[in-house]
């Protein structure tokens, strides 16, 4: 035991933290996409596990083909929008439940992503040969780029979801019956929301591919859970720090912060020499716990109330 | 204003749960007419309103609004001309959105929703005035989440929202049934005021015979998906509850066992 602790070098942890922040910011951008579906539209969209890889694949292949990195990222966003559109159409036009529509698209994207990458499971893009937007070789710059992009997207989302159209998307998620009664075409709003969400997820995938120097067909596996973790951690921290009322832009900012915190926890967990193969199990358990909190709290409160009513005399 | 021409609707056709909810029903509403709809449970009152609102398509028949055939229109398209308030006070507003955001959504009913800011300063002032008119103190809570309001407050807001952009037709689906008597009376009075001030054409379902007699200028009674009684003008004003029950028995061919069937509370 003492040998184990002696083997942990604090210096090594500190050295790894900045990399965690950079990756956390990238995942944070993905979490913003997931926030749109999970919190605003009230849909758990599983497309993202596929569209994250799609974003990486498109970005890397286009950079390899000589495109500037920023243009490649733009095309990645477009590919993501398209993926979301497919899920949205499967759901609204063909009546397939949202969760299943997402799974179908995700499955299909696995093949599509392989095709994009010329039938190989991963493609490397070297920062030595190409000008990339960010890379783990230069972590301070990666953090800066990630932070600027995240801030930009938060600002954009704050604006968009304050517009008439953005409000209609929020209304659709909050009360579909009311939205229809107010003349909102909720099917179109769902398609729009799913597209925008996956556009952001693909952007994040494109950034991650550049950061790590390769795109992998499996890089998006579990992305939805990581995104949910970021959203939930961000909400909890935001609520604790700001007590009750949190402005929308602050909520979004905390979603990004949630991504960073999640990744810092991962860095610590890896530093503690947990088997990296257990990471996904760890993430799943953490997210399940956080998701269960409202239900457990509610049940506890009701349990107490029921106990009290029983004590009321004459209440047969 | 509204013409229903021989509309029929059967739910779960061909199953043991088959239910003929509307049966060859025709109805004409004049411009500015305020009609109360009464009938027992399962008489087809809500089905009638939902058919007009376009919640689902009818099996046969035609629906005209302002002379336009809207039979094939989807719900959100009909909403351009129709304002609605539901029985469930939770159903008419978006709980996680601010009061002013809810009103702004309603103001844009039937309009194109583009990239302009969702709530403008100018309209905010209008909302404040309209809410002050309600006398519920809501004008100070424009940025409060609607989920924090009481059922009665939410129903009053929904009513305001339904009429914010003048509808050709206002549909009130037992919108006071879930409220306590005092609040229900207030919301009903507000309905009267909005309908008469804006000169709206309205269909109002109620479980309460007294309300049905006291409000509106025409009363229709439904049974088994048909209109079995249709009184208006002076004749309606002179109606009593007793008479209503008798005339129900005559038309429906069976006696109401108790008031309970019509669920009259007073």
Key structural traits:
heterodimer, A: 316 residues, mainly alpha, B: 266 residues, six-stranded mixed β-sheet, four-stranded antiparallel β-sheet, globular
Short description:
The complex is a heterodimer of chains A (316) and B (266). Chain A is built from 12 helices and 2 strands.
CATH topology of chain A: ABC transporter involved in vitamin B12 uptake, BtuC
Termini separation of chain A comes to 60 Å
Give the strand tally of chain A: 2
Provide the spatial order of strands within the biggest beta sheet of chain B.
6-7-8-3-9-10
CATH superfamily of the domain at 1-81 and 169-175 and 201-266 in chain B: P-loop containing nucleotide triphosphate hydrolases
The CATH architecture of chain A is Orthogonal Bundle
Name of the CATH class of chain A:
Mainly Alpha
The name of the CATH architecture of the domain at 1-81 and 169-175 and 201-266 in chain B is 3-Layer(aba) Sandwich
Rg of chain B, nearest Å? 19 Å
Outline the biggest β-sheet of chain B.
6 strands, mixed
Figure out the total of helices of chain A. 12
Secondary-structure element string of chain A? HHHHHEHHHHEHHH
Order of helices and strands of chain B: EEEHEEHEHHHEHEHEEHH
Averaged pLDDT of chain A: 92
Helix content of chain A: over 70%
CATH topology of the domain at 1-81 and 169-175 and 201-266 in chain B: Rossmann fold
Secondary-structure-based class of chain B equals: alpha/beta
CATH level-1 class of the domain at 1-81 and 169-175 and 201-266 in chain B:
Alpha Beta
Helix content of chain B: 25-40%
Chain-wise SSE layout:
The complex is a heterodimer of chains A (316) and B (266).
Chain A: H1 2-7, H2 10-41, H3 48-64, H4 69-92, H5 98-116, E1 122-124, H6 139-160, H7 164-174, H8 176-181, H9 186-212, E2 214-216, H10 223-242, H11 248-271, H12 279-311
Antiparallel strand pairs in A: 1-2
Helix pairs in contact in A: 2-6, 2-9, 2-10, 2-11, 3-4, 3-5, 3-9, 4-5, 4-9, 6-11, 7-9, 10-11, 10-12
Chain B: E1 2-11, E2 19-29, E3 34-39, H1 45-53, E4 60-65, E5 68-69, H2 75-78, E6 82-85, H3 99-107, H4 121-134, H5 151-164, E7 169-173, H6 181-197, E8 201-205, H7 209-214, E9 218-223, E10 226-232, H8 233-237, H9 241-252
Helix pairs in contact in B: 3-5, 5-6
